[in-house]
Amino acid sequence: MEKERRPWWLYLNLLGLDAPLIAVIWLFLFAQTWRVDYHPWEAYAALGLAVWTIRIAMKLIQGTIAADESSMAMAHRKTLKAMAILTGVTALVLTVMNFPLSVYFYLLVGGVLMIMHFALTLFSGKEGKEIGYVRHAMGGAAFAFGTALTAHVYLPSLGIREMIFSREFICFGVLCFLCSSATELWERSGKPVADGEAGSMDEIALSLPLTLLGAAALVFAVQNDSMTTRPFYYAILTGAALLQVLNRTRGRYAPETIKVLTALCLLVPGIIFKSFPHAG
């Protein structure tokens, strides 16, 4: 009975609601930072529904690979499959009816990234001894791309190349990658510091990039005299700092709690800095 009595806030992760909330909040930050004049509510709805659909699909795939019938996703897979189909179709309709035609080229690139991430997830071994950094990098890139494109597509004077090479997209993509790989690292170790040489290298592979990302975000924020992009980079810096803190204190928390806290490391900075003024 006790296993069924989960705290309500754990359902943020169990129901896959963390990823769409993060995507929608950071979409707002991208739109504000890039000074998107026209940005309809349908862009946020389509993104949130699409991300939730993909999140549920990934949970079902991972549950199938792990053969974990006790997980919430697998226990309610029929209901979740039906809901995912409904939300996926709704997201598609909103996209077709409201986005400019240029969105289809963006979706083609994003689809390739997503398929590669799915493939890497399917073919990754369940008992692998190394962190799947390539898989996490692909997942971070796909998530960042999908989030950013729903703002950038409303900038007709700029193409996809400008988005991919923008500092904002790169910083957010790296933050997503580090957040994703941190989750696997923490699930494997379960201790403040992992044992062995491989564990130490994984710790460095997380802490060092987080430090460099935070430093880069601070430099980029200071360089922007007009303050247009400062809230965005401060959100990146805060997210990296929160992940560092969680990395040092994770031994205090249960695995399910860590997943929610990891999502909050991206969600909280977005909520805080989305309301900051973006001076022109």
Describe the structure.
The N and C termini lie far apart (56 Å). Helices cover 74% and strands 0% of the residues. The chain has twelve helices and no strands. The radius of gyration is 19 Å and the shape is globular. The protein has one domain (2-273). The model is unreliable at 191-196 (pLDDT under 50). By secondary structure, the protein is mostly helical. Helix 9 (167-189) packs antiparallel against helix 10.
List the uncertain runs. 191-196
The end-to-end distance, rounded to whole angstroms, is: 56 Å
> How many structural domains?
1
Number of strands: 0
Number of helices: 12
Biggest beta-sheet profile: none
Q: What form results from the Cα inertia axes?
A: globular
Please state the structural category.
mainly alpha
Mean pLDDT: 85
Q: Sketch the topology as an H/E string, one letter per element.
A: HHHHHHHHHHHH
Strand content: under 5%
Helix content percent band: over 70%
What Rg do the Cα atoms give? 19 Å
In short:
By secondary structure, the chain is mostly helical. It has helices at 11-14, 18-33, 41-66, 72-75, 77-98, 103-123, 133-152, 160-164, 167-189, 196-223, 230-249, 255-273.
